[in-house]
Structures are given as C-alpha cells and as structure tokens.
UniProtKB/TrEMBL annotation:
One of its GO terms (molecular function) is ABC-type transporter activity. Belongs to the ABC-2 integral membrane protein family. This is ABC-2 type transport system permease protein. GO terms for cellular component: plasma membrane. Keywords: Cell membrane, Membrane, Transmembrane, Transmembrane helix, Transport. It comes from Aminicella lysinilytica.
Length: 368
C-alpha cells in the first residue's frame, strides 16, 4: 500500500505538470523526426571546377554512381578562387593523355575531400584504361590484317596524381573535421544550462524578487547578472579553447584571439538565452527539459552536418550556425576578422536581443 501511495502521488504530480508531460512525450518524437529528416537530406552533391580536362574524363566524373557531381569550366585562377570561396570543393587539371593530374581541393572536411579525390582519380583511371583497351584492339586488328608487322607491347600506365590542399590537410582526422564546430556547441550547451539553472535559483530563492523591489533599473539588473554569470563563462571559454588547440593539438590556421572572441560572444549568447528560458521553468528538471527543444535542433542545423534545401535555410536562423561558420573559417581556413565580421554581428545581436527580452520579462514580473 505504501508503494502504491508513493507511486500514485508521483503520477498525480506528473499528470498535473503539463509542461513536463509534453516535453517527455513529444520532445523525443520531435528530435528523432528532426534527425531522420536532416540525415535523409544529407548533401552528396559536389561542384568541381575543371581547368583543362579531356571531355571523356568530365563525362566519367558526371556519370559516377556514388555522388551528384556538377562540373564547371574555369581558368586556373578562377578555379582556385572557386575552391577558396567554397563555390567548388575541388579544381582539377588533366593533360591530354591523362598521364598527369593536378587537384586543388578544399580539405576543411577531410571526408568530403577524400570522396571527391576518389571520384576524380577513378574517372581519370577509367579513361586511361578505356584508351589502353581501344589501342589494344587497334593493334590486334592491325596484326590480323598484317601478320608480318612487328609486335607492339602496350602497357597500362597509372596517372601521376598530385594534390594541393587549399584548406585542411591530407591526413586530417575526424576530430579535425568536426572539432571546430564542436567547441562552439559544447560552450553553448554548458553555459546555457549553468546560467539557466542559476538564474532559476535566483528566482526560486526570492533574491530576484527582492532586487526588483528596489529602485534598480531592469537594464542594470540584467547587466549585473550577465556580468556575474559571464565571469564563469569567460573562464570556461578560455580554458576550453586553449585546451583544444594547445593540448589536443587540433588544426589551427587562424588567430587564436579570434577563436576566443567568437567563443566569448557565443557564451554571452548562450548565457542570455539560458536566463530567458529559465523564466519559463519552475524547476531544474524543467530547465534540463529545454535541451532537446532548444539545443539539439541547433546542433543538427548549425552546419555540423552538410545540409541542403530548406534545412540549410533553417540553419541560418539559429545562433549556433554563425558560431560554427566563424570557428571553421578561422581555425580550418585561416580567415581573418574581415571574413567573419557578419557572423560576429549576428551572434552579438542575438545576445542583445535575448537581453532585451529578459528585461521585458522582468518588467512584467515587477508589475505583478
């Protein structure tokens, strides 16, 4: 009977907590659906810029069975610029007899670079084999027509392939591919959770209510909390960033100060968003329940995975997209502030927006 009474009390509590019931029952379905749709729409389409390439090789590249390859003809300068600006994943030059192949590739994602290199090398190799087979048939026909003709030996020669990595490196690891975005994601996640729970405790303990009863302005209250919680976020950001680069040895082609700037703005954005979401929660458990609703969708849409169509458009609507874009540009591609200024403005703008929304909630709470 005691077990039944305890179980019944818990069930009644959960039954009356509609927010918890909705998150527990619906959140897993939403997340799994999002995972299915995002991965089902994964991008297997690549653009290759060709400089001087025989038509037969181009046809082989286009007709491969594994990936959707778009081929565009450019000059050498245009082709390399297309790779640098991420308009093409690779540029390729092949001489007339396919004996020499030069590939310029964007290796910021080692997996994608390996796939594209494989298609190019396989396509050139297939053309060389077809040409050798056709030449052998011609020799056989000539020998049949003239048995006294001297015998000719035809050897298959493997194409000489050289590759220049515009970004990244040939022996890049899985961590190098995803490490830069993951730094921002991890910082965003922990700062969001810590700030949200701590601000929730300020409300539950009555501390915030007592501050609101004083003449302190709402902007001063929010700024004070941001500075207070932000001190911990700053320490975490600096430690994580330096640890990943200098201890784990992650690839780093840009300025470490820019990495710290991006991560600090990301932490500020997560901090203000966590404070905002805490106003909708009544317990730490409910705060944690916001993770599958607020954090996980951003992880899938932020650019960690290659997306196309509507998913790519939706990705531009989440703050983490601009964090991962900026970190990848700086750490993998060696870009400067001139290339990531828009990302910085968007991340900082989101933080200011969340601060303004926090102030609006405080106004409503003060008037109650």
């Amino acid at each position: 009977m005691r077990i039944k009474a305890i179980a019944g009390r818990i069930i009644n509590q959960l039954r009356h907590d509609k927010r918890t019931m909705a998150l527990v029952l619906l959140a897993p379905i939403i997340v799994l659906t999002l995972v299915y749709l995002v991965f089902d729409a994964a991008n297997d389409a690549y653009t290759i810029s060709v400089i001087k390439v025989p038509k037969a090789v181009i046809q082989e590249i286009k007709s491969n069975d594994d990936y959707d390859m778009t081929v565009q003809r450019d000059s050498k300068a245009e082709a390399i610029d297309a790779v640098r600006s991420q308009k093409a994943i690779a540029a390729v030059s092949v001489n007339s007899d396919c004996s020499k192949v030069k590939i310029y590739v964007d290796g910021s994602n080692a997996s994608d670079a390996k796939k594209v290199r494989g298609v190019i090398e396989q396509s050139v190799g297939q053309v060389v084999k077809d040409d050798a087979k056709a030449a052998m048939e011609d020799v056989k026909d000539e020998m049949a027509a003239n048995p006294m003709a001297p015998k000719v030996d035809l050897d298959y020669v493997e194409p000489d392939v050289t590759t220049d990595y515009i970004y990244g490196q040939e022996d890049g690891s899985f961590f190098d591919d995803y490490g830069a975005p993951l730094i921002g994601i991890i910082i965003f996640f922990f700062v969001f959770l810590i700030a949200g729970i701590n601000f929730l405790n300020e409300r539950k303990d009555g501390t915030l209510e007592r501050i609101l009863s004083t003449p302190t302005k709402r902007g001063e209250i929010i700024s004070g909390y941001v500075l207070g919680f932000g001190s911990l976020a700053i320490m975490q950001t600096i430690i994580v960033s330096l640890f990943v680069v200098y201890v784990l040895g992650m690839i780093m082609h840009g300025n470490i100060l820019l990495v710290l700037l991006v991560n600090l703005l990301t932490a500020l954005c997560a901090l203000t968003l966590g404070m905002l979401m805490s106003t909708l929660a009544s317990s730490e458990f409910q705060m944690i329940q916001f993770i599958p609703v607020i954090i996980l969708p951003q992880v899938f849409l932020c650019g960690l995975f290659k997306l196309t169509g509507i998913w790519d458009v939706l990705g531009h609507c989440v703050p983490l997209y601009y964090t991962t874009d900026a970190l990848t540009d700086v750490m993998v591609r060696g870009c400067g502030i001139d290339d990531i200024w828009l990302d910085l403005i968007v991340i900082g703008g989101c933080a200011l927006l969340f601060m303004a929304m926090n102030a609006a909630f405080l106004k409503r709470q003060r008037s109650v």
